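Invent a record, attention on tokens:
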Amino acid sequence: MSTEILIIDDNSDIRLILNELIQDAGYNTRLAANYNQALTEIDKKLPDVAIIDVKLDKGDNDGIELLNHIKKKNKDIPVIIISGHANIEMAVNSLKSGAFEFIQKPFDKNRLLNFINRAVENFNLKNENKKLHSKLFHSYDLIGKSANITKIKEQIEKLSLSDSRIFITGPTGSGKELVARKVHKESARKKAPFIILNGALLDLKKYEVELFGEEKKDGSILYGALEKASGGVLLIDEVTEIPLETQSKILRVVIDQKFRRHNSNHDIKVDVRIFCSTSKDIKSEISNGNFREDLFHRLNVFNINIEPLNKRVEDIPLLVDYFSKKICEIYNFKNFEISDNNYLINYNWPGNVRELRNLIERIAILSPGNDNNKITDIIKESLSKNVEDNFSVNDTLSIPLKEARETFEKEYLTTQLKKFGGNISKTAKFVGMERSALHRKLKMLGVKELN
């Protein structure tokens, strides 16, 4: 699929110049001449990259509002801000809001095109990283011999034969989504969609649109999670974060097996198996008035509770062995073993299984082979800093945009080089770069090429 760039500027001459420049570079374009047109284009389909003028027809900073709107939908989409009335404060504010770059009018075409090429490259790198992590995640098994995990495996086997609603509880990073996917994978609905709606990540004003969908004034339809999951499973993650008003409407869906899209008067019948999960104490949430008790009893037909990793330490050596082999297999890394599990067993694991998995992946990326001293050093350093994920955006929020971008690119390209055994041609083809361009990029980032 070709890269698509959305150009938002109220000056027709600028739109024409940008359109020709970008299309000549081989990219597809969409255009918007004002704030409302831009909103329509963004909501209709998110672009791969957006170029936005700071000042449109709505106000002095409506371009920044559009930037924030895009980032709420997908924080990884690069946005280049342009302005004919630029000052240092405006540039700093746009970068703080998440802009990829800021450029002042009149702009140098080559400089802008360079920004665009790097933005596209950045977006593609992040997407590829997501695909790799998704591939790794979806291949996971539920590993453990503790009483808790043994019981959950038995529950999954039984629940896969039913169509009951399931309420999954457990701390963050314990594997609630994995358990939900396992039930779906072994059920009669396994060939139907598995859709996730994360209650903790939604805009407070968008819950019902995300869940039920919307019929817009122009006749177009925005399908919600319920319709996307038709015939399959809808996992409402962190369900306790959903507002009480929306909870009452979910209750009606569960009871009546039908719903209405936002701005619609027509009922839509629904055939969806609903799973819910939360990392909070559900009884406390009900007692504090944050969650409807009647909805909980409807959703909690069957409960699966996952204990934190520090309460099932007998699973840690099995998980270490499993993740070591699995990660090396998928990424084509050199196999390694962790001979001393004392540090791992005695650690509290606030991030649970996710934190352990990320630690093993970090060891694999650094590729110490069977150098036990080096492996131990990595473990000590990682656990002392309580690092959850080298690829997490949270880790880069406190550093400048340029440094964060370079850190990501360096880690990503190092990983790809290792995966292809240092073969530059194969790596370049996989990441979508010319061989010479990859050489230059590696030299710029200070990444040593493997022999």
